[in-house]
Amino acid sequence: MQYMLAVYGDERATESMPREQMTEIINAYMAYTKALQDAKVLVGSNRLRPTSAATTVRTVDGQTKVLDGPFAETKEQLGGYYLIDVPDLDAALSWAKRCPAARYGTVEVRPIWVM
Amino acid sequence: MKSAGLAHRAAERAARQSYGKLVAYLAARTGDVTAAEDALSDAFAAALASWPTRGIPQAPEAWLLTAARRRMIDTARRRRVREAASDRLLLSVEEAAEGMSSEDVPDWRLRLMFACAHPAIDAAMRGPLILQTVLGLDAAAIAAAFLTAPGAMSQRLVRAKRRIHDTGIPFRLPDRADLPARLDAVLEAIYAAFGAGWPGGFDARRQGLVEEALWLGHVVVGLLPEEPEGLGLLALMLYSGARRDARRSANGEYVPLSEQDPDLWDAPAIDEAERLLQRASSHGRIGRFQLEAAVQSVHAARRISGRTDWNAILELYDGLLELTGSPVVAVNRAVALSKTAGPQAGLAALEELATNPRLVAYQPYWAARADLLARLGRPAMASAAYARAILLEPDTSVRHFLERRCAQIRPNFA
User: Fold this and answer.
1) CA nearest B170 in A: which residue?
2) Cα-flanking dihedrals φ and ψ of residue B227, to 5°?
3) Does B170 contact A at CB distance below 8 Å?
4) Is B181 on the interface with A (CB under 8 A)?
5) Contact with chain A for residue B333, Cβ under 8 A
6) For A89, which of B167, B175, B178 is closest by C-beta distance?
7) Per-residue H/E/C for B212-249
8) Residue B245, phi then psi, degrees to nearest 5
């Protein structure tokens, strides 16, 4: 089954983070990505620019509007994702637990809807 | 008459056992609990109707599968028209039916229980799910036991089963590292079923749940004989179940543990519990259920010694409190403390818990408080606490007991 590990964290904390700590986190993500590749479970992954770069399109009263800003103001924001292919939820959860975001933020595990 | 009743129970048990095995087997192969249940529903109903009078067939699972086959094939064909991927169930059913003339299906009920008690399933639904999938109880019976509306329970069960399928919860035993925590969830769910059946003294449906939970406990111990907490849970349920007849007087009044006649306790059940607890402790891995069972073991010793060793009970509750941090345990510990160090010490321990939001609506907290206040000669506060306890108690006979206790303190008050 394919699962998306959606990585959530506090963007503002990241912005004000000392460079050394930032490097440490980036290294942790690189090692994690490498581990996913080595295990041959990685389908795809991306880091997203912060929600300050987000633009939202939404229909209000029948009119499609382009709005500046993210979908919703939240304490933690979607910062990236991993798409993985593993046998079952337990395998997906075990990868999610090893994701650096599990220490710094939240990882949401969602199965892909096969159409 | 009694033997006819026993035969009926044996047949029903066999039907439930075979049903649970088949649901577990088919669900594990397809990941789809609902489809497995659906396939077997008519066959199971037919078994419940026929086995008690005609006897249990030689190969019960094969009997059920034969009865279910047409239904399964029909359903699978209809679904195949709708969605291309549904050949799996038909295939696994046909395979299962092929190789099952005499041999048993593998017993995967524990896998099914682990799926139902997965951390991705709402903790409150794990017990109900296990009762439905492993035992085939209908939503109405489960709703009655868990004091929920049948419609709501039914919907929640449907959603939980869909969640097992959609999230890809596996049907297998957890890895060694995860096993203790995951087994705890299974045991909690079984204990919730036991607890849901417990207070319903006169409701046959709920009483039945006590038996079913005991039986699930036996299944877990049979399949994981080396897990001390499984042994502990089964012992705990046996101790509590052993006192069932002593909990009601001849005219149906509630009798608290301290006033029960130990001769009315089920001695063989207590003996079995003692053996299980001993086996559990030989593993040297203590846990919540073993400690709770040990408390019951101390209570049970009264049948021989004629007294209750409250120091031992206090020590066990100290251990439990350290392990669980549960306010319910803290209330029991305070009661034990009142027996060893006096009512003042017990009340002081209860006072420390007064701000805990979980205890505001917890009947035993208020009853314990009322009892200690009465002993300390504070009748007005004692009656107020009894009034609170009475309001919170759903069981009529327990309520009457509390009312009698409350009435007994009135004279001092006047």
Assistant:
1) A88
2) -95, 110
3) yes
4) no
5) no
6) B167
7) HHHHHHHHHHHHCCCCHHHHHHHHHHHHHHHCHHHHEC
8) -70, -25
In angstroms, the CA B143 to CA B137 distance is 10
Smallest CA–CA distance, residue A111 to chain B, in Å, is 6
Residue B225, Cβ density class (10 Å: 0-12 exposed, 13-18 middle, ≥19 buried): exposed
The full set of domain ranges for chain A reads: 2-111
Whats the size of chain B, residue-wise? 414
Judge contact between B312 and B299, C-beta under 8 A: no
Q: Please judge whether B118 and A89 are an interchain contact, meaning their C-beta atoms are less than 8 angstroms apart.
A: yes
Residue-wise pLDDT tens for chain B (414 aa)?
456 777 888 888 888 888 999 999 989 988 889 988 988 988 999 999 999 999 999 888 888 888 887 777 777 677 666 655 556 666 666 666 666 654 567 889 999 999 999 999 999 999 899 999 998 888 988 887 787 889 999 999 999 999 999 999 999 989 888 888 899 989 988 998 888 776 544 455 566 778 888 989 998 999 899 999 999 999 999 999 999 889 889 888 999 999 999 999 999 999 999 999 999 999 999 999 999 999 999 999 999 999 999 999 999 999 999 999 999 999 999 999 999 999 999 999 999 999 988 888 889 999 999 999 999 999 999 999 999 999 998 888 899 999 999 999 855 544
Domain ranges of chain B: 1-107
DSSP-assigned beta bridge partners for residue A83: A4, A44
> pLDDT digit string (tens) for A46-70?
999 999 999 999 998 999 999 998 9
CB within 8 Å: B120 and A92: no
Q: Structure tokens of B238? A: 């046996």
CB-CB neighbors (< 8 A) of A107 in chain B: none
Distance CA A24, CA B156 (A): 44
d(CA A89, CA B222): 27
**Cα dist from B137 to B19, B44, B58, B160, whole Å:** 11, 11, 24, 16
Interchain pair A90, B167: CB under 8 A = no
Cross-chain Cβ contact A1/B168 below 8 Å = yes
* B166 touching chain A per CB within 8 A: yes
Chain A's closest residue to B114, CA to CA, is A90
Q: What are phi and psi of A44, to 5 degrees?
A: -175, 160
Which CATH number applies to A2-111: 3.40.50.1580, 3.30.70.1060, 3.90.1200.10, 3.40.50.1820? 3.30.70.1060
